[in-house]
Amino acid sequence: MLNLSILMTILINGLCTGSLFGLVSAAFSFQFGALKMTNFAHGAFIMLGMYLFYFSMNIMHNDASIVIPTLLILFFFLGYILRLTLLRSSDANVQIIVTSGLAMILESMVLFIAGALPRTLLSGIPPNWKIPIGNSVLVINQFNVLTFLVSSLVLAGFALFLKKTWLGMAIRGVVQQKEAAYLMGIDAGKIVNIGYAISFIISAIASIMIALQFPLEPISGHYYQLMGFLVCLIAGMGNLNGGFFAGLLVGLISTVVSILSPKWHDAIIFTLFVILLTFFPNGVFLLKKSMSREV
Predict the structure, then answer these.
(1) Whose C-alpha in 57, 76, 149, 170 is 20 to 30 A from the C-alpha of 143?
(2) How far apart are CA 172 and CA 156, in angstroms?
(3) Radius of gyration of the chain (CA)
(4) What is the DSSP letter of 238?
(5) Is 42 in contact with 225 (CB distance < 8 Å)?
(6) Intra-chain end-to-end CA distance of the chain, in Å
(7) What are 50-97's pLDDT values in tens digits?
(8) pLDDT at 125
(9) pTM summary value
């Protein structure tokens, strides 16, 4: 029978893992649900961010105060340039083909340069907090807690940015009524470009948090893109507020299934999600509301 410390460990790990899924899904949900931009290279860019963070930390001798801001700025301009060049077309079919090809190019490039062997940023035993509970000890990984705090702050900050700043309100205006935004003197094209670039900053933050905890591989992005997409579907496309809570739900379910039946983890998880989306096709947290109003 599970004791209190094991139950608390499952709960904490599930919430921390879920917050990471919510962070990964936020950029994808904003791009696809709000900006109507299909990005099948989302996972590949997260993988690229992981490797850039890994090599930058080694080159800069683990000076995160320089590496992290540089990576965030780099991803902002990367997203902006991509929107201006390869992703200028509003045709979803063109976006799917271009981003799918871009994902294969990025994965092949990283595979050629870094090789296929997994890499780990941190060496040794991860730092843990040990909290005595009765006759047992609750072990909490510090990076799990850091992931939860960073994910919560980033998503809350992004929501406040969209609601309280002029640029955020301009993005919401373009998303909800593009023609009206034009009449109000807003350059809708430029605003969409900036919004798309900002979503890449969120992807960079997600890649940093993943690289701190998990091994790096050229195919790492596949899993996170898939889980992020599932979180988006459960929350409702474009529902950034619900995405965080949907991520927590997915993380808890994934952690519990991993403990009960690790061999059948993927089969059970996707079966549960199919059943869930059958009864809630618009998303559990979005229901029948307008997706654009949730931005």
Answers:
(1) 76
(2) 16
(3) 20
(4) T
(5) yes
(6) 44
(7) 999 999 998 887 788 899 999 999 999 999 999 999 888 888 889 999
(8) 52
(9) 0.88
